[in-house]
Design goal:
Mean pLDDT: 94
CATH topology: Neuraminidase
Radius of gyration: 21 Å
Largest sheet: 5 strands, antiparallel
Shape: globular
Number of domains: 1
Oligomer: single chain
Strand content: 35-45%
Helix content: under 10%
Length: 451
């Protein structure tokens, strides 16, 4: 508690200060809206029976679980209080957000339960939501379920022979979203692919990823296959699992999309791509009219203990917001005495690096590192009036979640930020309780105006 109090005092002293040659800016919580963790909705009435319950194959050996709630949710050794399968589809896992002109937002649920193998019965969904900031609630106005009626996917989907060909988390892992007039562009991780769906969720395009004219392949890419002979070389891939398009931004004129990989490309010989002396991931440009990669890209170098990006949206024509994080969860004051011996009453790997960076990129630095203008620390958000319903202590609100995957500009002085709660696996707020989906409205005028 003393550490948090001192951090709060530091915020009062200065709105911006240099840490490790980077500039940190103050963020103040304006409001918070919460969607309870265990928010389950029914599958569409025309969905196959197989999809009416989700999480049936989340057992360690992938055997079918038939009793609802019989597979406990675990964050390491800590039980989260919820179990699988669910009777219905989980709304959880918000993994990208876009502000709309009317004050509403589009977001999406990611592939399900953490892997391609265990998410065959998790339906892919987009959500049209609005926040009641005064009441602190998330209003889900519409849910769009994705499907492939025209057999666009270049591989057999889970529901290949079904009358209604809904898409699941074993087909795609959708992570980032950009609404367009005729539908949505979506960044995906398993390929990784850039995909397009209509306004009612029908798949129209699946575009493989190219960087410098070369394919980007994750180990979950459906075109990869093992050799029949164990003496033959294994298929090559150049991206870690779950390191595809975590971020997808759109230029202000709508002509370009910018996909940001979650993690770095593998170069071979044990080396991953770097920039400015740090591990770096790629930001790749896509021409919407041509439906083709332009060949232009930039490098995003990680800072400090950052290892992954969480979301990405443009501020204006040349600057953008990027969530950068480590793999930790929970606050240090509840850390386990011995991280090598995790216990169910403490956090074995507390969160240390949860930031939103403002970056600049454009014609002047194509092929080079983006410029990091500054950041806000999501573990040190001022809440002097205690407006947060949960997460504030001694005037400081924190987001100690393993995955924070939603950020966008709301107006000239405010941004919205939200976590992906990985239901029922993540427990970063409380050691033994599945995380809710928390969205916060933050006042960050100096940060957005920074040059």
């Amino acid at each position: 508690m003393k550490r948090l109090l001192l951090a709060s005092v530091a915020f009062v002293i200065s709105t911006a200060f240099a840490i490790a040659n980077e500039t940190a800016f103050k963020a103040t919580l304006v409001s918070q809206a919460i969607l309870p963790a265990n928010t389950i909705i029914a599958a569409p009435i025309d969905a196959p029976e197989f999809l009416k319950q989700a999480g049936k194959f989340t057992t360690p050996d992938r055997k079918r679980a038939t009793e609802l709630g019989s597979v406990p949710g675990l964050d390491g050794v800590r039980k989260t209080g919820l179990g699988l399968p669910f009777d219905g589809q989980a709304v959880q896992g918000f993994s990208g957000i876009k502000t709309m002109a009317d004050g509403s937002f589009w977001t999406l649920s990611d592939n399900g339960f953490g892997s391609k193998a265990n998410s065959t019965d998790a339906m892919l969904m987009l959500h049209h939501i609005k926040f009641d900031w005064q009441a602190g609630k998330v209003d889900r106005r519409e849910t769009v379920f994705l499907s492939d009626p025209d057999k666009v996917a270049p591989f057999p989907i889970v529901m290949e022979g079904a009358e209604k060909r809904y898409l699941t988390g074993a087909d795609f892992d959708i992570e980032s979203i950009q609404p367009v007039g005729e539908g949505f562009w979506i960044g995906e991780e398993l390929g990784p692919y850039l995909i397009h769906v209509t306004a009612d969720g029908k798949l129209t395009d699946v575009i493989p990823t190219l960087v410098d004219g070369k394919p980007v392949m994750s180990p979950d890419n459906p075109t990869l296959s093992l050799p029949a002979d164990p003496t033959k070389p294994l298929p090559a891939f150049n991206l870690r699992r779950s390191n595809g398009f975590e971020g997808l931004a759109q230029s202000k004129d709508g002509s370009k999309l910018y996909g940001l990989l979650e993690g770095p490309l593998y170069l071979g010989n044990g080396k991953f791509e770097e920039a400015d002396g740090a591990t770096a991931t790629r930001l790749v440009e896509f021409d919407v009219a041509k439906k083709a990669w332009t060949g232009r890209s930039w490098l995003y170098p990680f800072s400090g203990t950052g290892t992954n990006i969480g979301d990405f949206n443009m501020i204006d024509g040349g600057t953008a917001l990027v969530i950068e994080r480590d793999g930790g969860a929970g606050l240090a004051d509840r850390a386990c005495a011995d991280p090598a011996k995790p216990e169910p009453t403490c956090f074995d790997k507390p969160a240390k690096h949860k930031r939103i960076y403002k970056i600049a990129f454009g014609d002047d630095n194509v092929g080079k590192a983006v410029r990091k203008v500054g950041y806000i620390d999501l573990l040190n958000i001022a809440d002097p009036d205690g407006k947060a319903k949960q997460g504030t202590a001694n005037g400081v609100y924190t987001m100690p979640f393993v995955t924070i995957e939603n950020v966008d500009v709301v107006d000239a002085t405010h941004i919205v930020v939200g976590n992906d709660n990985n239901l029922p696996y993540s427990a970063g707020r409380v050691v033994d309780k599945a995380d809710d989906d928390e969205f916060v409205l933050l006042e960050v005028s100096d940060f957005l105006a920074a040059k």
